[in-house]
Design goal:
This protein is an alpha+beta fold. Helix content is about 40%, strand content about 20%.
Length: about 110
């Protein structure tokens, strides 16, 4: 298992991003009730991680990633598949975040209501 302090590589991240994508898609037909939101996992990366590494892995996995500065550190929104606008969106994002954590990455959730 990788750790949050290990060097992140394109193949390792691609596998983690594919797992996150598939975990999110497992909830695509869940009920969608509640408040509209734009929840998404945030991948926190070790200092010195190249943006090109993250973006190449995201592209290879068929998802998007966007660099952010949050809580004093560089991170990336990981845009795994999402559908609906409420609780389904949250469950899909949480499943993707869980898959990233299962891959040994430092992932946290960004919750935002509309």
């Amino acid at each position: 298992m990788q750790t949050a302090t290990a060097k992140l590589t394109v193949p390792m991240l691609t596998a983690a991003f594919i797992a996150a994508r598939d975990a999110a898609l497992a909830h695509k037909d869940d009920p969608d009730t509640g408040t509209c939101n734009r929840d998404t996992p945030v991948l926190r990366v070790p200092p010195g991680t190249r943006e090109a590494t993250i973006l190449a892995a995201a592209e290879a996995a068929g998802i998007r990633a966007s660099k952010i500065q949050w809580l004093g550190r560089v991170g990336y929104f990981i845009f795994a598949p999402s559908s609906g606008q409420a609780s389904r969106c949250s469950r899909m994002a949480e499943a993707a975040c869980g898959a990233l954590k299962d891959a040994g990455l430092e992932a946290i959730m960004w919750y935002q209501m509309d």
